[in-house]
TrEMBL record:
UniProt KW Hydrolase keyword: yes
Record note on quaternary structure: Homotetramer.
Sequence ranges assigned to domain Fructose-1-6-bisphosphatase class I N-terminal in this UniProt record: 6-198
CC per GO annotation: cytosol
Lineage of the species this protein comes from: Bacteria, Pseudomonadati, Pseudomonadota, Betaproteobacteria, Burkholderiales
Species this chain originates from: Malikia spinosa
Cofactor mode of binding and number, as noted: Binds 2 magnesium ions per subunit.
Descriptive protein name: Fructose-1,6-bisphosphatase class 1
Record: residues binding substrate: D117, G118, S119, S120, N213, K279
Broad class of enzyme this protein falls into: hydrolase
Pathway(s) it belongs to: Carbohydrate biosynthesis
Xref: Pfam families: FBPase, FBPase_C
Cofactor or coenzyme needed: Mg(2+)
Main location as per UniProt: cytoplasm
Binding-site residues for Mg(2+) 1, renumbered to this chain: E92, D114, L116
Amino acid sequence: MSHRISLTRYLVEQQREHGRIPPELRLLLEIVARACKRIAISVNKGALGEVLGSAESENVQGEVQKKLDIIANEVLIDANEWGGHLAAMASEEMENIHVVPNRYPQGEYLLMFDPLDGSSNIDVNVSIGTIFSVLKKPNDDPKAIEPVSEQDFMQAGSQQVAAGYCVYGPQTTLVLTVGDGVAMFTLDREQGSWVMTADQVSIPEDTKEFAINMSNMRHWDQPVKRYVDECLAGKDGVRGKDFNMRWIASMVADVHRILTRGGVFMYPWDKREPNKPGKLRLMYEANPMSWLIEQAGGAATNGRQRILDIKPTELHQRVSVVLGSKNEVERITAYHLEADAAQ
Ligand code: P6P
């Protein structure tokens, strides 16, 4: 077996040899990785750790919080606020940004996360994950007098300096990009360290596997119905090949499968909530996942435009998501644009 390098060595080499990440960003990513290790320990305890079930509270999205949602959120806040590398954090579980307390030095980075994505799967022992995204404060002048605000987070996904997720599944795997492709690190529990198990991950441009929640079919817009009907028609239809379908209902697990063997993932607009563009959140779900997918040679749009080009206006804004194998995403996007042109 070739010598596998550690996450620390990968990050030091990205800093030293590629000059891609400054020391404070390396520190930030090491701390996030350590927080994910802590979350993995709680997740893996399951019923033995009094961590399952509902927390009897609701988050800003109006979703019932699981105990593990709150535990994961607290682990990430506690791990990151003292280091001096961050100015503020934002989380799916918190309505407002969390500014680093005055007792600690403020840094130039902004960290956003969905601390535990796929919560509905926690109690049934299906893979879940932590998603994170890193931006730089727009005005990173350390002597800046104006305090960090939510407005500082309103940057397009193309401005991310790091993005990744940790999937808590049969393996605990951290997947990361700092703009030099996608690397994967599997947790070696005996040493408690992250060991590189893949680098320069590449998604096949074509696929025979699509991921969407089929129970919403009657609510979809015509372009999505057209694409999925063609997949279901298989080799007898216009696509000339049969398709397989997967839906884990944990974005992290579905994206991990796509990074590993290709595929296309869709959570499109549907008429259940016509005034919302989709279910998934732009800042800490779609943006980090879209950058990972693009860094691996895939594509990510909201059905009409590149997700990473979307200029956010609200911290928790939602977005339609179509991501994965490039040729499939381009086909679905073309169907949306054709439908728009025909209107
Ligand atoms: P549905 C999990 O709640 C999540 O935010 C994503 O991880 C996942 O892809 C999606 O929602 C599942 O949604 O409507 O199929 O339960």
